[in-house]
Amino acid sequence: MFAFFVYILESSRMFDFVRKHTKIMMFVMFLLIIPSFVLFGIDGYNRSRENGLAVARVGGHEITQGEWDAAHKSEADRLRASMPNLDAKLLDSPEARYATLERLVRERVLAQAADKFKLTTSDARLARELQENPTIASLRLPDGKLDMERYRQLAASQGLTPEGFEARVRQDLSVRQVEAGVISTGFSAASVADVSLNAFFEKREVQIASFTTSEFASKVAPTEAELDAFYKANQALFQAPEQASIEYVVLDLEAVKKSISINEADLKSYYDQNALRLSGNEERRASHILINAGKDASAADRQKAKARAEELLQVVRKSPDSFAEVAKKNSQDTGSAANGGDLDFFARGAMVKPFEAAAFAMKKGDISEVVESDFGYHIIKLTEVKTPKQRSFEELRASIEADLKAQQAQRKFAETAEAFTNGVYEQSDSLKPVAEKLKLEIKSAANLTRNPVPGATGVLANAKFLAAIFGPDSIEKKRNTEAIETAPNQLTAARITQYTPARTIPFTDVRSVVRDRVVAAHAAELAKKQGLEKLLAWKAAPASALMPTALVVSRDQSQNIPPQVLSAALRADVSALPAFVGVDLGAQGYAIVKINKIVPRPTPTESAAKQDRAQYAQWWIGAENQAYYNLLKETFKVEIMAARPARTSIDLSVAASK
To answer: What pTM was estimated for this model as a whole?
Structure first.
């Protein structure tokens, strides 16, 4: 209570001071706030606010634009690292970004559910998970202890401390429990699965009559008035996209390398310290006798295998020249036994660690003790050692210089990237200052659109870079874009030199396109009209139906017929045969399907039936789990404010270029 009165008294004194010294306080606020605008600019505040904009909300907790961007960058970096040949455009597409947001929402929903349901992970469960993790298992030393330095590196590669890494694993385990109740208890009775699978794999003998749009195109002769009316009513279809010509600069490791020079003394010093390594790796040739005993084998089996290896070791020790013959008769390595156990030449890193350690500690002609590995027990004989010939400084000079430049460029890139980022922002009316300061080439490109033009590569195909070019700052305020990460260790900035807004293409330029559309629309109507007439006539008199050769179709044997036609054929009511069903194919025309008979699913073998039932059970469990997740989304009042990207179906780039 005393502390509360002291707080009230101090607060009263503070407000009295503010009232009596208003001008002083305004001056102090001026000193505190104005420098922030000077240093960061109003745009800096705006960009900060944009990063803080909510794109989704889960249980009252917001997911901001900045969190979405960071999550997508992390996901894209992970995919690039695991699949280096993956097209970067796929990672930066609106669909890929939205998928990241949906994943982020799902993670938040499950995390909040785990918290609400008090699903925690014990220390013992966490320890068991870490012990069973194959990545962590690979960090263990020969004595079984964890290599803590490499463990810290693993955590650091994910931006975490070991404690943070373990906390995340603990959280993941807790979250898994949310769905585990559904996944682990889901099942499908064999009788129910068989009914569904029999229906799913059922075959039907069908005949298909097609009334294609192209067949009726010659019967359509639109007037100029019709073409003009269509053009005026559908001007959104005939828009030339906005275009921009730009100049841009790219900062990457190659650009940084050009600013680095290595003196002769450093080159020679590096050569002296690394001559052997640079000349090549030592290789060794060995033969071995293997007695199999996998790491999953019982202790008794491993002991028996070891005893057999010890017996063979005594044999080859007494008669080293018999090693090849003993290997042929006794080695259980099918790949090398026929060659007397010969493994040819290998360098460090090619063999499992215990084998490598023994082989590279031996002298030519030596026979090792019994060496234990995850495969079993080895007896190794070292037959040859290939030491690389040391190359001269002059031979290696070019590669040494390239290595040192690459190393220094990697270290210098972060510093240069900061200068680049600040330069394009602080002098936002030109790229010339930052290009001159960092010795970068100013490049140019013409007729860019918001989507990559056909054949675009590199930064000009990067969706994020193009979005920045067509942002309001670039178009309306004529400013440089911010520095955009267009690839790992690559930043790009641009400015617009010429901008052409979107416009409606004149009728004369697109007349042929307009005519094609009008003809196609009328031809599709004629095809549908004739198809409906035939459908009514054939239903009334099935024998009058003139149809092509019959096909047997099913969901797994579509016979290359259109999906809409296949779906109609398999969904049609077959209580009375033959059955007819019409399919409106839209712009492609119309089709009539005649179902002649049902072909039951062939009785599968027991193993195939078991496999199919297991697959069906997975589908069923997946559907139940998705339904449960949808319920959780309702429970935690999920809102996604970001619009789902829509696919564009009209491309008038050819007409627009006229």
So the answer is: 0.50
